[in-house]
Amino acid sequence: MKQISFWPIGVALSLLMVMPAIVTAQQSKLTLDDLFATTKLTGTTPSRPTWAPNSEHFAFSWSEPGNPGRGLWLSTSDGKEVRLISNTASEAVSEIVWTDANTIMSLRGNNLWQTTLNQVDDLQYMPVETGAHNLSISPSSKQAAYIRDGDLWLADFASKENRQLTEIGIASLSSLPKGRYSRPEREIGPGIWSGPTYKWSPDGQTIAFHVVDRREMRKVPFPDYLAAETNPNEVRRSYPGDPNEIRRVGLLDVASGNITYLDLPDPHAKQIIDFNWSPSGAFLVDTASDTAVERKLYVVAPGESKLREIWRGVRANRMYTSFGSTWHPDGQQVVFLSDMGDRYGLYTIDSSPSKDRPQLLTDPSYDVLSAPGIAGDALFYTGNGVNPYEQHVYRLNTSSGVPEQQTHLAGRNDGYPSPDGRHLVFMHSNDTSPPELYVLNSTGGDATRITHSPLPAFTERSWTAAEYVNFPSLVDDYTLHARILKPSNMQPGQKYPVLFGPVYSNTARNRWAGNYSLIQQLLVHKGYIIVQVDSRGSNGYGRAFREEFLLGFADQDIEDYASAVAYMESLDYVDPDRIGIWGSSYGGTLSVYSLLMKPGLFQVGVAAAAAVDPIFFGTDDVAIVRRPRTHPEIFERKAIKYAANLEDKLLFIHGIQDHVVPFKTTAVLAEELIKQGKDFDFAFAPGATHGWSRQQHYDRYLFGKMIEYFDRHLAVPSE
User: Fold this and answer.
1) What's the CA dihedral at 108, 112, 376, 447 to 10 degrees?
2) How open is the CA angle 622-625-626, to the nearest 5 degrees?
3) Which of 196, 278, 488, 676 holds its CA 20 to 30 A away from the CA of 151?
4) What is residue 8's predicted lDDT score, i.e. its pLDDT?
């Protein structure tokens, strides 16, 4: 490609961001086998912690480097004493609840285990039904509820008996329990993509639950070619404009078993964001339309079932339901996450009948990135107040009204405050470090690290940190932001190949991204420069930039990548004839459409699980593309219409059991490319789902195909 004269206008924000990590010692060659060994280099990621009621300890499941399974671990609130307290011969710990400040119940296989702190006993306590999950302790601590086969069950600690509370669950239509849409016909649980499951009332007499009914959704075959004979394997999987899941909220009287359903409007077109009980027993319900245009908050008075709307927000340009809500510590106001301003913020509104408008609580200069959490007399939340690339935990004392940043380790931080609000456990990761638990005192001081998860083979290596840069868009006035990883041993005068990927929104982030981070490090080790861009639709740059993505899939965001390519080509160490792009899901979409809409921008593309026909998007994608009836022009933007434009090298990766982006859509595009005499390549996996990069064996095979493809077409320097 012709090199463009282009002066960078932005550089990194700190020395860490400006300079890549330098390898100070000769290291052995990094291989795919290293990354995908049965025992992961990064070890076991600790679970989210659960706090004791008195805030003196927290528990989590984890295993030390090289050890199998997940044990039950305990730490003091200051992090000075951390120890394994479970029987090493027991099954892996999957869920943890506290019955009192001295006793933990944990789910291991089909049994509850009781662990006492003062006597250091860890004993098998009682069986539960096979498949139990979503364990939750009752307010009396004498029982625990759980979900099994789409129904609520109750484990009674005194009698050690299990009792089924509901008869709602209906088994899945699919005969293959695999894939995002292979879900029960009806169940108590979240929707396909989000939603609550159930919550106890403060007095323990009522359980609020979320019912999802999928029986009106379309039946779609996803053939199972690995069966003895090909199995059609139908699943419930609708398309934009089709009937969606029916989502309802029920109130179960635990003693009688009677169920009262709330009269929520349009349950086929509105999702339940969340629901929560106040200390006095009032019930808050947070809903949003599938299009994201309308948001409503309702309150149900204690002991009643009549809904009262306390707030309604409507915005035609809204496209994300990144919402959340809870009760204010005073039990009278509601705190909710909203996008009423230029940035996401926390707002408060009185739950009583009032004409008052919501009041902003948080700093309007940055985005709040999580629903609020209540601990003591404070609100805790995450936000990007330091810079768009980082996420930190903030504490807002309801009396002072001034948010205070709690975490200071550069990277991504997710917080879990103690019940009294005096301590904070947080999960931290960055460009070179997988997630680990830390704890700190919320009044200040340094954080104490709790876990050390990676194997020695990981910690003994040097891993490449990222630079963060910004540069102007070539098509409008936006400033764009990117994350860049460079080989540590770059030689003066030599030009290097560049790989954009995995491409997606919100990728210029200082965080560890699992397999993707490992693959990026391997590619850098092989001599590639890696680039990720925060294209339109990303948080951190204001509402207008975020909502440019509405009705604009694979459109203006491709221009963002064109601007990024121009920026990279302006650097004297970049080879403009060796630039590739790759991504999965919408990242695969970007990869395909970039090659078809702008031939020559990238010389090579790898498109995994790529959505190439909007007619086959999911029902919930109406938030991005709306419906064929209202916006028919959007649904004409099929990749097949641009197949004649393919000039560059293209590799498709797809799992046949991908319910989110049907394999059929890529097959149809491939057929058209063949008819037009286009050269391209294909790697498929018979049993892989949409999450192919997280599935054992498929990840190693498909990533291997991708890297070999880039090596074949980009690794040799151009003449």
Assistant:
1) -30
2) 50
3) 278
4) 34
Number of H helices, E strands in the chain: 10, 44
Q: What share of the chain is helix, strand, coil (3-state, %, to 5)?
A: 15, 35, 50
Burial classification of residue 342, based on how many CB atoms lie within 10 Å of its CB (0-12 exposed, 13-18 middle, 19 or more buried): middle
CA dist list (Å): 635 to 46, 249, 569, 615, 626: 43, 33, 34, 6, 9
Helix, coil or strand: residue 620: helix
Residues 570/546, Cβ–Cβ less than 8 Å: no
Separation of first and last alpha carbons in the chain = 13
The DSSP call for residue 140 is T
Q: Are 332 and 377 in contact (CB under 8 A)?
A: no
- Cis omega (within 30 of 0) for bond into 502: yes
560 φ/ψ angles, rounded to the nearest 5 degrees? -60, -40
List pLDDT tens digits, range 130-169: 999 999 999 999 999 999 999 999 999 999 999 999 999 9
- Residues 281, 329: Cα–Cα separation, whole Å: 14
How many whole angstroms separate alpha carbon 365 and alpha carbon 367?
7
**CB-hemisphere CA count at 13 Å for 452?**
8
Q: What is the pLDDT of residue 682?
A: 97
Q: Is 33 helix (H, G, I), strand (E, B) or coil?
A: helix
Q: Summarize the confidence of residues 425-446 as an average pLDDT.
A: 95
- Report pLDDT for 26: 53
CB 141 within 8 A of CB 155: no
Report phi then psi at 665, rounded to 5: -65, -40
The structure tokens 């294909």 sit at 682
